[in-house]
Amino acid sequence: MKTVVPDRQQSLVQWVSQATGINTFGVKVRLRGNDLHILCEGTECPQRWRTLSDLLQALQQTNLDILTNSEQTSIYQVFVYGRRKGEQRPSWCHRVHLNQIDKHLDQVQQALLADSEKLKQSGGALIVSNESLARQGNPEAIARYLSETLSTLGVSVQVKIKPYKPKNSQPEENRLWIFCQSSYSPDASLLAEPIAQKLRYLKLSGYQDAVIVSQVSGETAPDWLLRVDLTPPEVMLKEWARWGDVQAIARLLAEVLSGLKVGVQVSLKESTLHIFCIPAFDPLGTAPIPDKVACLEAILPQLEAIAPQAILAATVYGQKAGDKEPTWIDWLSLPAANYPAFAISPLDLANTGDEPAMVFLLERLLNPDLDWRLLTGGIRVLLLNKNGLLHIMCDAPVCPQRQQVASKITQFIRQLKISGIIMGVRIYGRRAGNKEPFWHYGVDLEHRQRLVPEATPEFAATSIYIDDLVTSETSEPILRPDLTTEEVQNFVTEVARDWIATASSTARKFLLKSQLFTESNESAERNHDVQGIKIALVWGTLGLLLTLQTDWVLGRIIARNTPSSPKVASATLPSSSSEQKASLTSGKNQSEKTTFFSSTSKTKSPPNQSSVFNASEFTQSDDTPKNNLAAAPLKEKATATAILLAARSQMPSFNVRQLDEQLALYKQRLARTGSPPDVLIIGSSRALRGVDPAALSKALATQGYPNLDVFNFGINGATAQVVDFVIRHVLEPSELPKIIIWADGARAFNGGREDITFKSLAASVGYKQAFQKTATTANSNDLPENIVNSEEQKTNEEKQEISTYEAVNQSLNQALASVSASYQNRDQIKSLLQKQLLLFGKNQTVASQKQLTDGTSDESISQQAVDFDGFLPLSIRFNPARYYQKHSRVPGNYDNDYKSFQVEGQQDTAFQEVLQFTQSQKISLVFVNMPLTADYLDPVRKQYEQQFQQYMLRLATNPNFIYRDLSQQWPKVNDFFSDPSHLNRFGAYEVSKKLANDPMIPWPVK
Prior knowledge:
The chain is an alpha/beta fold.
């Protein structure tokens, strides 16, 4: 198979071929990051030093950047490989630093001379490493140094130095900017710590920090930014040593005494520091004892300069390792003994609300590994005490995990005696360099009841701007930011777990005391025959008495609450009366539920009720609706029924749970009505949430189309391929209506992105069986008659066995019925129990609906369920200020749903199949481009939407196909949406009314 080499690689291949004399078929090149890889091969492996000599001489006279395109970053080093054709691995490899070609040439010339004289010499020019050059602070050397690690990831590097002026009138400083470019978007956590480690390892001077910018090739805006703290390790150690950190003091003293070949061990007891000076290296035990005078002259100035907090004195010992007694001892008085301000411990200072002391204690708590902190910069803590709330920001090259940080900080703050100073704690986590937190957590130390929203403070990206911790003007109010849905759920889960454990233990003890049960590990050798018979008789008698008592009580209840006339009437009812009664009861309950919801949505609260607090006694969220919107009444949820029907279905799963459940509900509807619905709504989650069957049916009745049955077959993530599969292969032609409303948008027709839903569906057993269904159905009519007869005979035998069992069972029932007081009235008892359960269920529905109205989290969305019409009613209203605190704002050029957007491809093919199929079956197909918010329709998405609309308008000329565009119907009405691209039940109600009033849609007439 012939492959086409890019133009830039063709020029590089030709250049290498001309320089080395190797045929172009034996040269391969590849650019990865800032590295150029050249493979030279032939029938015999090319000679290493001769090939390198020719290539290096050509490199001296050629600028490789000219041979590459303008978008490619500079090449810092070249890897040259040689191998024989047909072999998998190269025979030799040589790395060439382009900034040291002369030294490489000297090395190669000496190697050639050694080969000619057949001498085994390893001499040559000394190649200076990129690390040594980078330590000098040269930007190009730093870029070469970083590219050694990042080029293997396909990331190219450029380094620049830019001056910046701090806001707090400090002198101008230099900042290191590192630009990383790649053909993909690497995760920040993949590059953050490696770059931070390598930069801090250089111990650069003159730079406070470095900013890393990651950008995808061809994009104009950066993908993400990261800040790396370049504070030298010595400065970090002195900061902690100043607060009396023993480990940091030991590191500093070890550095000072290393010149004397003396090791040091440090410990703290009460307020005295104990320093043991031992030989740094003494494996044989012959090293001399450290000199007392020299050690004291090195230690004392260091401790006086540090002035460790709350350490009054130091005792210095000189001894050999392993000795029990020191050879010499000396005592030193430290500054804390003379200055009372230095004598207070950091913990005591933190108890008074001292923020620097709290910062040190928190950073020490969150960075237990001192080596890791010195290597990467560790987790940094910023504090802000505002209005009795202590805001704590934790940032690091990789955003600290909430589970690891929040609990430690909360436990530490609770231990402090600052109840009168701080009433609550708000903890945030972010990646270093960002201003906005990735997550937040809060807890109140004292009871706080605020009716005024609390704003989240804005933390500066660097410690230099610590004075800029002010509230952002654009920040939206937040009510109780510490109280999140996740925390409430965690609390409820813990309480439920404790309750279950207590209940299980109590039930276990009760069952063991009853002697009906024993421990599973109890020995089986004990003989309980005699005692077991007695216990069985006692419990059997108690059970019989309980049964008779229950029967007598139920008989009295029925006799008191039930008049005598219904008995006569029930005796004359046909066999189907129970079904009619159930339907009437269900309709009554449904009407009661509808009346309740409609009344609560259209009437004002009583004067004695407060609208400030919700059912959980917490303040209402900011986006609580202030105006009532029209919507169809909520119906009974059907998720539990759908799960049960899907589990009992004979059809194998499609690996898409919602498709299985929607199909089960649809099959149940077909079995109940005996015919397909009049209107079928299909599409992705935008159809599932966006068209209300009840509202559409009601609106159509007002337009002269009464009693139309509507079903919503929406499936999350459904594309054109999924819809095509459902219509043409899952459902039979006889199960399809005369009109299909396909509600969706451009995302479902993007042939450039990966269709995850259809990919999962295509791997299922149900997918394979669906394609075999037609052939199987065609062959089923030709089955031999003897097979049918054998099946009938087998069924008759089973019926005979069952009838014998039923006869015995019936005789026993009749015998018990003659002595039972409630058996004759069992239907009335059943109805009474059902009524009580329905009342209880209605109360639960009311409570859950109120909670759903009050909350706005995604967790509440996930807990909702579709109704028996297949519709998912969401009451949540889209509030951008609250929504984007929990979700990232993804622009259109980074939205995977619009990735490589094109309407041509596999989705277009599936849509054409649907058009042909509906035309052949004389089914009207209406495609509705669903509404979107202005917040969602950025310039990129608008461009794709325009392409999609042109595509649909071209296809609108097909017979039996109608296109309706509602994408920009209500771009500013956020109350109609549950998120930027999905409607809630209020928006679904409006869409349903608009479709019913559309004169171009051919609605069926019954």
